[in-house]
Amino acid sequence: MKTVFITGTSRGIGKALAQLFLKNDFFVIGTSTKGVADFAHENLIMVQLDQTDSASIERCARSAADLGKKIDILINNAALWIEGDYEKEVDIFILRKTLEANLVGIVDLTERLIPLMNENGHIINVSSRQGSFGYITAMFTTSYSISKAALNMYTRALAYRLADRVTVSAIHPGYVKTDMNEGEGELEPEEAAKDIYELALRDVDTGKFWYKGEVFPW
Ligand SMILES: NC(=O)c1ccc[n+]([C@@H]2O[C@H](COP(=O)([O-])OP(=O)(O)OC[C@H]3O[C@@H](n4cnc5c(N)ncnc54)[C@H](OP(=O)(O)O)[C@@H]3O)[C@@H](O)[C@H]2O)c1
């Protein structure tokens, strides 16, 4: 049985992803800030993770190591968008908190999990087209976009570093009806999850940014 580690499985895209992997006979290590989810499965274990808290990140990685399982797929899905993060000004509190959660915490966790990854594993960073340099729109969100652009660069750097043993990808999941968008969007979480699931299992070139199965510009 293969193992997938997915962050942010309490709701939204992460929950749909966890349920899809469970349906397809994966062992799932999921996370939420409280360490619980409103669904259970014999092949699901939930771990507490707050990406803004280095002690929580360390504990989470240790819990994963203690399971004694190698990780085949790591999906860095958890992220936040803070109310008030718009294009008009930069709120430094929002910027710091967003970068802690959406960048520093993800890098910290990933670096701790890399030694647990199987050869030929796949790391997927759930990014956003808002992190793409070519995608500046009226909906631009400064801190969130900066965090996703930086996550994209981490994807590139990690792909270069792990080239001979682990594939590293970034993906834009689409505009999805989740709490992050107050329920608005074009896709159901299950549709976005299917896209990420298919990428996770595909044999793709490392270091690419994906959207709907196609390479998307950085
Ligand atoms: N929805 C969209 O249209 C859209 C578009 C582009 C990209 N994305 C990306 O897709 C991913 C999933 O988004 P979503 O829409 O499913 O979001 P969501 O419904 O708001 O769910 C966010 C998940 O992340 C977890 N989380 C939040 N803050 C955290 C923190 N500080 N530390 C650890 N975990 C934390 C939450 O856990 P708790 O339940 O414990 O708070 C929850 O499980 C994110 O990376 C997002 O940026 C979404």
Briefly summarize what is shown.
The chain is α/β, with parallel strands linked by helices and 218 residues long. It is built from 5 helices and 8 strands.
Give a written overview of the molecule.
The protein is α/β, with parallel strands linked by helices. The chain has a single domain, classed as Rossmann fold (3-Layer(aba) Sandwich), CATH 3.40.50.720. It is built from five helices and eight strands. It has helices at 12-23, 54-66, 92-113, 142-161, 189-201; strands at 3-6, 27-32, 44-48, 71-76, 117-126, 166-171, 208-211, 214-215. An eight-stranded mixed beta sheet has the order 3-2-1-4-5-6-7-8, sandwiched between helices. Helix 1 crosses helix 5 (189-201) and helix 2 packs parallel to helix 3. The longest helix is centred in the middle third of the chain and has 22 residues, at 92-113. 44% of the residues are buried. NADP nicotinamide-adenine-dinucleotide phosphate binds next to helix 1.
